[in-house]
Each structure stands twice: as structure tokens, then as C-alpha cells.
Amino acid sequence: MITTALTELLGIRVPVVQGGMQWVGKPPLPAAISNAGGLGMITALTQPNPEALRTVIRETRAATDKPFGVNITILPSINPPDYEGFARVAVEEGVKIFETAGNNPGPLIKFFKSNGCLVIHKCTTIRHAKSAERMGVDCLSVDGFECAGHPGEEDIGGLVLLARAAQELKIPYIASGGIADGRGLAAALALGAAGVNMGTRFMCTVESPIHQNIKEKMVASGEQDTTHIFRTLGNTSRVFKNTVSQQVVALERRPGGAKFEDVRDLVAGVRGKVVFEKGDPDYGVWTASVALGLIKDIPTCEELLSRMEREAEEIIGGMNKLVKTKAKL
Asked: Domain of 264?
């Protein structure tokens, strides 16, 4: 059994956290992950309103007696969601672990900490990580350039970013981006992380609520099957390389570039939702990390986490054998 600051902080067996994922973080998945020993995470903004979140929290609690959390991501929006309402309802329902991400998380962090909750904040730079540390978060999720979704604009890969985190941070941190197996978990621990955050790998499990066609498409894909959109708009996002995302990239690369209005219909969130519901991988944009190259099957969450735990233990044990004690003269 691998014991880290993360497993002790959260009361979990395996140092693996499910990242928040729009349209994916619904009760069956986080409940299965928590039952398997990790930390499942409900995605608040997948729900239309705070009361709907209350319902799915209760559904998740009915499916597991293990710890689970709620993700609230603050992103630029024409019509901002009721972030305060989502946070209030989750606290009222007894949720004690939250993942925050995005712009200006200070008010949410303050609210959660004032209610005795644990906060994991996701960030893509050491600068932002240290800022969140000063705000009083309990753990940081350090997101390398390999990640799905928004990697920031500095393009720093996990290898360097995690080593920098070891130099700079005083609180536990976990590795996020491009991790899908026990080898990635062992590597993250070697880089000073207390565990890992996974999103793309959990999408491709039996309990994931997305269409089977999309899961099979992920298994058939490789590490080269993602692309970045919104690069020219200063809001980079890594998504699956398909017909729609390639159209967006082409519009951004044309002379004079593109404005958001030029791509708005192509990147509409409802189209990504339909991808997961109907199973057409080319209908809209959907996020995926370069971990696609490591995904070869569609296991249950129990099978996946047990395998990761076993692999990591074997790798760590094998690395110990590399250290030879000098014979005494």
C-alpha cells in the first residue's frame, strides 16, 4: 500500500484524484472511483443549477460511503453560473473536499475554508500555485502542458513543472496531465508529488457516462491525436483532433486570425455534450490529453486503480534495487 500526504489528508487508499470534467463527472463515475480507493469528483457545472447539484450529491452518497469531492471551475463566461449557489449547496450537503480551478478562486477558497473544508486548487504555473498556497488551500494540483483542457499559456511540461513545485511549494501537491498508469504514478511520486490527478484515463472506464463509441475511439487513438485551439485568443485548450477542432485551428491560422465570434458555433459546449451522448466523435470539440497514447483498454475503475497501485509498487520496488550499498573496507 502506498501511503502519502494525499492519502492521509483525504482518507483514501490510492493516491489518485479524478479531475473535474464537464459532462463526465456524474454520480456513477465518482462513486466508482471512490469505491475503488481513489477520490471521485462531481463536476458542479455539469448541472444546470445548484439544486440539481444537490440531487447528484445525494445520488453519489447513496452509491458510496467513501470520501468524494466537488469540482467548481471558474471560467470566463457571458452569463456566469451561480458559483456561490453551487458552493453553498455542496457545503449544505456535507461535502468536505473541493477542487477549485480557474480565475479568481479567492472568494470560493475563503468560503470553503471557513466551513472546515479541504481545498485542492488546480493551477498551471508555480506563480499561481504559490498564490493559492497563500490563500490557504490544502493541496495543489499542478497541471502540466500534457493535460486536457486549459494548460495555460506558458507551455511548461510536467517533468519540469513538478520538479519546480518540489523546490517552491510548502504544501502537498499532485501531478496532473498525461498520467494514465502506474508508471506515471510512480514518476509523479519520484518528482515529489503526493499523488496524481487523472481525467482522460477515467473517461475510458466502464463506469464513465460517455458513449461507448467515444471510449473505443480513445482506445484506438494515440498521443498525436490531440490539438490546441484558442492559441491565438490567449485561452489555449487541448482537445481531441477531429473535424471540428481542425476547422477551428484553420480559422485561427488564416491571415488576420480569428475572433471568438468566428468560432463560437463550432466550439459550443452543447455540441461537446452531444458527442458524449450520441457517440459521434466529430460532432463537436471535446477535451482529451496526450494520455490517449497510453490507453489500451476500457477497465472498471476498480480494475484500473488496482492495476495502477500494483504497477507503481513494482516500479518503486525495482528502483530501490538500483541503489547499491558500498561494501565496507
From this structure: 226-287
**pLDDT (tens place) for every residue of the chain, 329 residues total:** 899 999 999 999 999 999 999 999 999 999 999 999 999 999 999 999 999 999 999 999 999 999 999 999 998 776 789 999 999 999 999 999 999 999 889 999 999 999 999 999 999 999 999 999 999 999 999 999 999 999 999 999 999 999 999 999 999 999 999 999 999 999 999 999 999 999 999 999 999 999 999 999 999 999 999 999 999 999 999 999 999 999 999 999 999 999 999 999 999 999 999 999 999 999 999 999 999 999 999 999 999 999 999 999 999 999 988 998 877 76
Q: What's the pTM?
A: 0.96
**49 and 140 in one domain?**
yes
Alpha-helical segments (H) within the chain: 5-10, 28-35, 50-63, 83-92, 106-114, 126-135, 158-168, 182-190, 200-203, 212-220, 243-253, 260-263, 269-278, 301-320
244-251 contacts at long range (C-beta below 8 A, 24 or more positions apart): 244/271, 244/282, 244/283, 244/284, 244/285, 245/285, 248/285
Indicate whether 204 and 240 sit together in one domain: no
Q: Say if residue 62 is in the same domain as residue 103.
A: yes
- Whether 43 contacts 21, CB under 8 Å: yes
β pairing state of 237-240 and 226-229: antiparallel
Residue 216 within a domain: no
Q: Is the CB of residue 214 less than 8 Å from the CB of residue 188?
A: no
Give the C-alpha separation, 155 to 143, whole Å: 10
